[in-house]
Amino acid sequence: QIGRNDRSTTKLELVDSRDLEISLAMQDIGNRAEIRHSSALHMLGHRLGVIAGRPAFEPAEMPLGPLALAHALQYALSDLDIELGERVRVFHDFDTIVMGPIDQFYERLNQYLADQRVLPNLQFQMRRAGPAENGHGKKAAAAERQDEAEEPTPPAAPASSAGGAAPPAARGSSSPAPGPRQAAPRSYPPGPAPGAAASAEE
Hints:
By secondary structure, the chain is mainly alpha-helical. It contains seven helices and no strands. It has a domain at about 25-115. It is about 55% helix and about 0% strand. It is elongated, with a radius of gyration of 45 Å.
């Protein structure tokens, strides 16, 4: 009995692994078809959502979407006693013959619904995401902005001989600080200079 149980367990594991491999293959076929025909599926999902009175259908939710058709094929082959290699060949032909040109079917269905006034002006637009800024980029940008905002403080000028501190030089100027203020020369009215007048009197 122990040997029989071991053989049945091994057979069950083989069946489960085969079913898992088939399921993954169908999932991969459906996902690739959704990517190839994303434009037509996007518009069809919005139109079906309007008919059903609900938000737009995702491609995986559509009754005639690629995933639904792939799972339908998997269900149809589940009762057939054929080898795994033959199943793989069927999957390959299904992907090439059915999923390849199926966008024509979706486009015709979209055109029919548009003719019936179901979102007739709907257009598909691909959204492009801008360049993402990671955490290091944000920190570097913040540090750069901080460096630009903080200007270096000029060093203090040495004290003057009179004992007082010299006024700081103007920022951005290389000329030295002005010295003590000198009296402006006196101006005389036109005529002979004072020294010449004194000589004349003597």
